[in-house]
Write a structure and sequence with these properties.
mainly alpha, two-stranded parallel ribbon, 2 strands
C-alpha cells in the first residue's frame, strides 16, 4: 500500500501493543483485529483523516485509541490517503532524562564559549574612507604642477 502519510515505527508499535492488550481481554475485538482487510497503517490513515476532518492538528491518546477501536469495530470504507506526519509522545526513562540534560548542558557550554570567543576577538579597525562629496580637502593648490 502506497500511503502518503508518515508514521514512525514507534507509532505503529504503540498501536500494536495497545491492540494486543485489548485483544487479550476481548475475544470479539481479537477476531476483528485479525481481519486481513484491515491493518494498523490503514487504521492510522483513518485516524489522520478523522483528525483532518475535525480541523485539529493534535489529538490526545484516548481519542486516537478510540478512533482505532472504531476503525476495527465498524465496516468502514477505505478513506483517501492523508498527507501528514504522525508522532507519538514518549515518556523518558530516568537514564534518558539524564542523558538529554547532559546534552543540553554541553550545548549551553559550547554556545557560551563561542560567545566569549566572539566577544574577545579584536575588533576590526575602521577602514579609511574617501571624503564625502562636498567636503573640502586641505591641499594647497600648486599652479606649476607636482614637479615644483
Amino acid at each position: 500500500m502506497a500511503s502518503t502519510f508518515k508514521s514512525s515505527e514507534a507509532v505503529v508499535e504503540v498501536i500494536r501493543n495497545y491492540m494486543e492488550e485489548r485483544c487479550a481481554s476481548d475475544p470479539i475485538l481479537a477476531i476483528k483485529y485479525a481481519n486481513p482487510a484491515k491493518s494498523i497503517e490503514k487504521a492510522l490513515n483513518y485516524v489522520a483523516h478523522e483528525v483532518q476532518k475535525s480541523g485539529l492538528t493534535i489529538m490526545d491518546s484516548e481519542s486516537v485509541f478510540g478512533l482505532i477501536l472504531h476503525y476495527y469495530d465498524e465496516n468502514l470504507e477505505d478513506v483517501p490517503n492523508v498527507n501528514c506526519n504522525i508522532a507519538v509522545a514518549k515518556e523518558l526513562t530516568d537514564n534518558e532524562k539524564a542523558e538529554v540534560k547532559e546534552q543540553a548542558k554541553e550545548r549551553y557550554r559550547e554556545e557560551q564559549l563561542r560567545e566569549l570567543r566572539r566577544q574577545n576577538q579584536p575588533k576590526p579597525k575602521a577602514k579609511a574612507t574617501a571624503p564625502k562629496a562636498g567636503t573640502e580637502i586641505n591641499v594647497e593648490p600648486n599652479l606649476f604642477g607636482d614637479d615644483f
